[in-house]
Amino acid sequence: MNNLEIAKNNFLKAEEILSPYATKSSEAIRLREEKNDIRPAFFHDIDRMIHALSYTRYIDKTQVYSFKENDHISKRMVHVQLVSKIARTIGRALLLNIDLIEAIALGHDIGHTPLGHAGEKMLNEISRKEQKENFSHNIQSVRNYMYIENKGEGLNLSIQVLDGIMCHNGEILSNEYKPKKKTKEEFLKEYQESYQNRKKSQINTPMTLEGCVVRISDMIAYIGRDIEDAINLGLFNRKDLPKEIVNVLGNNNKEIVNTIILDIIENSLNKPYIKMSKKVYDALFALKQFNNQYIYSKSMTKKEREYYKVGMNKIFNRYLKDVEEENQNSIIFKIFLKDQNKKYQQETPPKRIVIDFIAGMTDDLFRKEIKELEKLEKK
What we know:
By secondary structure, this protein is mainly alpha-helical. The chain has helices spanning 3-12, 41-50, 53-56, 76-93, 98-107, 116-131, 137-148, 159-166, 184-193, 198-203, 209-232, 243-249, 253-268, 278-294, 302-324, 331-334, 342-347, 350-360, 363-378, and strands spanning 176-177, 274-275.
């Protein structure tokens, strides 16, 4: 055995003690077969994602609050790192595959639009009107990794990673998360169906226990951190948090995260599912309702929301005209289409191209493009 073969075995030593419910690297399925190097499949997927262009754009994408003059307000990049850390903490305690968990966590929000969930809603309205298809950030994340990234070639990520990303929806809380076994064909069927059934795309069940861990970790990562951001912006005081919630979970992000993680570990160790106690589940459900009322519904003013909605429609129509007329001077050609392969350009309908481009934009570029159109309209 040469040194590289020894190194390859060293990568896999940690899997010798994994839970019987964990997903082994040898179980990884890819859309296209390829020769492996010394890195296990899911570990390799992490490398592919963090070196991809779309990963860099996380740094300027909204988590909850857009365009706030405060350097300590969370961006999407911080969120995915928090999800990864929380999920790996739970996964390590439960002896699950940490590489698979990290890959799903780091990639799960790559399809988020500018302006976060507000922007997603706006782009969904455009997609339904123009494409007769739903737009969901989790489905766009999968699309990005399969058909857009790497100049249209995709990254050929493992099905288990893509499925975990597709099924990560942290907006819907459950008391128990149990994986559902799938074939590659079943995964692809769920993916395709999601364009016509948005509700289904939000409740699809991950095929691995690691995917289940990331799904609940998504909520753990944002629920307390969003409170800290809101307090930092002066939107409410810590004493405004309901006592019945604080008495169970704590009154700051550190306590909330720690309480939920320990509760999940205690209720999920050596089990084929991820579960919380009823007390913690009820408190987390109530906290989510509190956040919906005092944070998410107020992340933008009505005036801001209408301004950006009109702006998104304007830039959609402008880019669509540019694509249809093959305007090479347009930004959609200069920073997007010029790097996409012929297959993507020839087989992707113009409206879908524009949706892909807008979904991938950073907040700053999105706002800049709206301002540019406003200047042109005044001429």
